[in-house]
């Protein structure tokens, strides 16, 4: 469970990105985070994987205050959280296989287990046959699928995606959403910041809407609900 209590985030340059955020996300939920550019969506989700720390307030994951976590503890947190970005962030010189394996190798799994697990997740995202391709040889949608495979390879409890379909065409975006739904169906909490009205209004889930660093709406099976 992710819980924020009266969270404020003021960046070093004095910009207030979040003010007075309190919310709870239960294990297994699927949550969209929507709002105009600059509303605070990225700041909100970055606090959940300790990419940023709150200026004030608490960010608890399973009752552990991650805002106060020491740097050396962060890798342990990250093993339980898969992160997916708009621009994929794959390592350009590594193959699809190596990009995914890298996430496992850093936790010293044995090689046979790594191979099986990596091929399993590449299969899950439909890319087993392109395991030897490097990112430049893959389409945007395929690169994002590799990034998803990398994010789920450690069986994280939480997957956080920041505008994962932002660089993809509509058909490819729906494929990505199908994979997210499958990931969520296995009990993984899925949190996704998005600007896609079509996705939010079609695949109905909880919607947290942000404006000026605050949560202005939080609905079960909500709608996108504002004009861009
Ligand atoms: N590292 C940073 N340093 C200073 N200000 C920042 C930083 N990151 C974000 N901000 C500011 O905080 C506010 C919220 O930004 P944030 O990226 O959280 O919004 P967003 O809703 O994710 O926007 P977008 O949809 O454009 O990605 C903005 O005013 C932004 O300029």
TrEMBL record:
It is found in: Cell membrane. It is a peripheral membrane protein. One of its GO terms (molecular function) is ATP binding. It comes from the Bacteria. The keyword Nucleotide-binding applies. GO terms for biological process: cell division. InterPro entries: AAA+_ATPase (IPR003593), ABC_transporter-like_ATP-bd (IPR003439), ABC_transporter-like_CS (IPR017871), ABC_transpr_LolD-like (IPR015854), Cell_div_FtsE (IPR005286), P-loop_NTPase (IPR027417). Keywords: ATP-binding, Cell cycle, Cell division, Cell membrane, Membrane, Nucleotide-binding. SMART domains: AAA. Residues 2-227 form the ABC transporter domain. The keyword Ribosomal protein does not apply. Pfam families: ABC_tran. Part of the ABC transporter FtsEX involved in cellular division. Homodimer. Forms a membrane-associated complex with FtsX. Belongs to the ABC transporter superfamily. This is Cell division ATP-binding protein FtsE. It comes from Alkalibacillus flavidus. The lineage of its organism: Bacteria, Bacillati, Bacillota, Bacilli, Bacillales. The gene is ftsE.
């Amino acid at each position: 469970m992710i819980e924020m209590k009266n969270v404020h985030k003021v960046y070093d340059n004095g910009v207030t990105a979040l003010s007075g955020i309190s919310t709870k996300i239960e294990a297994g939920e699927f949550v969209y985070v929507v709002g105009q550019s600059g509303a605070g969506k990225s700041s909100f989700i970055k606090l959940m994987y300790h990419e940023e720390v709150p200026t004030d307030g608490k960010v608890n994951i399973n009752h552990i205050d991650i805002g106060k976590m020491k740097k050396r503890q962060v890798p342990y947190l990250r093993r339980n959280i898969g992160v997916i970005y708009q621009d994929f962030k794959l390592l350009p010189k590594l193959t699809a296989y190596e990009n995914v394996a890298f996430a496992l190798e850093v936790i010293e799994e044995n090689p046979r287990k790594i191979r099986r697990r990596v091929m399993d997740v590449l299969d899950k995202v439909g890319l087993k046959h392109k395991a030897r391709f490097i990112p430049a040889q893959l389409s945007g949608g395929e690169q994002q699928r590799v990034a998803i495979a990398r994010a789920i390879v450690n069986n994280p409890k939480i997957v956080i995606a920041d505008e994962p379909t932002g660089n993809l065409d509509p058909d490819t975006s729906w494929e990505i959403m199908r994979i997210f739904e499958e990931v969520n169906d296995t009990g993984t909490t899925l949190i996704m910041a998005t600007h896609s009205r079509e996705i939010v209004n079609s695949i109905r889930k909880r919607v947290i809407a942000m404006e000026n660093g605050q949560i202005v709406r939080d609905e079960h099976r909500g709608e996108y609900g504002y004009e861009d």
